[in-house]
Amino acid sequence: MGVRGAAMGFLDSDSDEALVRKARDGDYGAFERLFERHRDLVYRFAYNMAGRRDDAEDLVQEAFVRAYQNLGRYRDEAKFTTWLLRIVSNLATDQGRMHNRRTALEKQEAGGGLDWMTVGNVQDPVADLESDRRAQI
Q1: Would you give the end-to-end CA distance of the chain in angstroms?
Q2: Most buried residue, 35, 59, 95, 116, by most Cβ within 10 Å?
Q3: The domain 3-114: what is its CATH number?
Q4: pLDDT tens-digit readout, 61-86
Q5: Which residues contact 70 (CB under 8 A, 6 or more apart)?
C-alpha cells in the first residue's frame, strides 16, 4: 500500500462512521471522540433552537445520551452529524411543547381557570345542596 493508501486508511479509521462502528462494538473511547468532535456544533444548533444557555446545555446532554443509547439505529446512509442534529431537533421540539403546556397551565392557574378543582362552597356547604335537600336539613 502506498503512502496515499495508508493515509486514506488512517483517515477512514478516524471518520465518524468508523468511530460509530467502534462505539457499537463497545469502544466507549470512540464515542467520547465523537462527542469531543461534535459537541460545539451540537451546542450551537441547540442554542439556536432553544434560545437559552441552560436549555441548550440540557439538549446537548440529552442528545448525546440518546445517540449513545440508539447507536444501533443509526444507518450509515446519512452523515452521523445529520442524525445527531435530528435528535437535537426532536428534543427541542418536545422541550418547546412541554414549555408551552406549562405556560398554558400557569396562565389557567393565575386566571382562576382551575376553579373546577374546588369542591363547593367552604363557607356554606348547605348552599351547594339541591333545594329539596336543603329543605330536609
Answers
A1: 102
A2: 59
A3: 1.10.1740.10
A4: 999 999 999 999 998 888 999 999 99
A5: 87
